[in-house]
Amino acid sequence: MSSQIRLLLADDQALVRGALSALLGLEPDLEV
Fold this sequence. Notes:
Blueprint: E1 5-6, H1 14-25, E2 30-31
Parallel strand pairs: 1-2
């Protein structure tokens, strides 16, 4: 049984936040 992992990204640069969110959002077990 797998559970979903939730992530909160915090960075002062919007480009970094957006890129990490898009990349990690591709993983089915992660909620960003």
